[in-house]
Each structure stands twice: as C-alpha cells, then as structure tokens.
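Supplementary Note 3. Input sequence used for the single-chain structure prediction.
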Amino acid sequence: MPTKKALPPKPVFQSVRVVVADDNPVVRAGLTALLSGREDIAVVAEVGDGRAAYEAAVHHRPDVILLDVRMPEVDGLAALPHLAGLAPVVMLTYSHEPEIVQEALRRGAGGYLVHGEFTVDELLSAVRDAVRGRAHFSPTAATAALAQIRDANATAHGARASNPPPSLDLTKQLSQLQPSMAHSRTGASAREGFRLSAREAEIMDHIASGMNNQQIAAACFISEKTVKNHINRIFAKLHSSSRAEAAAKWLGTAVTS
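The predicted structure, written as discrete structure tokens, is reproduced below.
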C-alpha cells in the first residue's frame, strides 16, 4: 500500500479588518452592523474621534479605516495624515464641501463617500477595493476631485511646467469610479413644486437610483418602517402609485398628456 501523504493545510481566510471612526454613535452602530454581517469584513474597532482612531489603528493594524470629517477633540482632517500612513483611509461623512473633499485628498484619503450618495453594495465595494488601492468617490466628491484636477491643469498650463503636478495622479483614481455612482441630476426643474422635505428628497433620489427599502434604510441609517412611511408621503405628494411612476416624475422623464 502506498504511504499516504499529509494534505497541505487549508489556507486561512483573512477578513478585511476595518476601524470605523465617527462621533455619531448611531452611525457607528449602523456601519458596524452592516459591515460585520459580511463574511469577508470584520470591524475591529469603532471610535468617536481622530485621536482614538489613531490609537485603534496602531493597536489593531486594520486594513481599512472609515473616517468621518467633523468629530470632537481631533477631527478627521487633522488625524488623516497620521492614519494614512497606517492603512488606506476612506472618508465616510456628511461633509460634502468641495474644499473639504480636496483637502482630504491632499492629506492622503484613498476615497471619499458622502452619506446618501451611495448604496450598500457601493460601500462594501469601496471597503474591499481600498485594500487593493482602488479609490471610490460618491458623485459630490468626484465633482470636487475633478475640479481639483482642472485647477492643477490650469496652473500647470499657465506656468508652462515641464512636469505634471502630483495631484494629477487623481486621474487614475477617478478612472476607477463605478458607473452606478454617476448620480443623475437630470430633470431638476421637474422637482420644483413637489415640496418634498430634505429627507424625502434624499429617499426619492435613492428610489430613482433603483435602491430597495432595505438598502435605503441602511444608507440613511433609519428603519425600513420609517422608509415606508416616507415613501407613502412621497407618493402622495408626487401623485404616484408606484416607484417607477414616482421616479419618472422626479427625474422629469414622465410622459405627459
């Protein structure tokens, strides 16, 4: 009988280790629950300010850091240069001002997602891709990054510089944006008169992008029941009986008689 050879050990599966930094405990809990529910992602720490994020990153050595901008004590922008040297950092925030987006990129952010402008799947892809050096931007952040590239191009052209400025490296990052994140602003004029609240408009944007109630709830950090209540009010204001009809009116593509 031939001697049995020992089988090689199975490779140990490594989850993407994530630190979540946000001063809002509801947002932290929502992100942790969302990410921890995936087999290939593990949240190793959740913290509420930049200093704690740095300490957690030094201790846990995560693969990715999700970082808010506005936090007490040490904010995200102040902590960013220190964190970027420890792990890829994806900004995950409500701060959408172009100057903040551009400053975050200058300080080493490897992606920038604005709450309400991405789906759950896009968030998960951003976390997984950050480990491989692929950047993800939500629409507002992508617009700000493009503006930074244009400004850099104009400066370089005016000075007749022989070498392109370092910020032009963003072109490679922007080329990797997912098509589904190209948030349409078509038909904005059709939205006048609907009188939706800011939250209802946000949810209507999600509906128009094809998200279901569960995805909307996760993106807005509210319950599915609350989403349903908002949708009922939205349908009443848009005089619609279905998501497709409401989306068509919202985007200005509805056929009028």
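The chain has a mean pLDDT of 80. Strands lie at 16-21, 41-47, 64-67, 89-93, 112-114.
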